[in-house]
Amino acid sequence: MLVQFLPVLLMPFILFMFPERYLSNRLLLTAFGLYVAAKLLEHFDSQIFSALGAMSGHAMKHVIAAAAALCIIYAVPARTPNC
């Protein structure tokens, strides 16, 4: 439980306390929002499957979590080689 929910509690505090330097706080905040959405989809898995019939919250959770990972990847600036 600590690994699952501690980031949800600490991430807004960390983003607020440390100004943007190298990483995009906007994209990190978006990733945080998507992580919370993925946790909600996981929690309401059976209700979502009952409502939609064709797709469960678990499957949707994986798509949302992948989008969160993509936000984190894009938040890291690209380095160019020094030639």
Task: Give structural attributes.
single chain, 83 residues, mainly alpha, 75% helix, elongated
Describe this structure in words.
The chain is mostly helical. The chain is built from four helices and no strands. α1 runs antiparallel to α2 and α2 runs antiparallel to α4 (57-75). The longest helix is centred in the middle third of the chain and has 19 residues, at 25-43. The radius of gyration is 16 Å and the shape is elongated. The N and C termini lie far apart (47 Å). The model has no long low-confidence stretch (mean pLDDT 86).
The percent range for helix content is over 70%
Number of strands: 0
Reading the helices and strands in chain order gives HHHH
Principal-axes geometry comes out as elongated
**What's the N-to-C terminus distance?**
47 Å
Main sheet specs: none
Give the percentage of residues in beta strands.
under 5%
Give the number of helices.
4
Kindly report the oligomeric state of this protein: single chain
Provide the gyration radius in Å: 16 Å
Average residue-wise pLDDT: 86
> Segments where pLDDT lies below 50 for 5+ residues?
none
- Structural class given helices, strands, pairing? mainly alpha
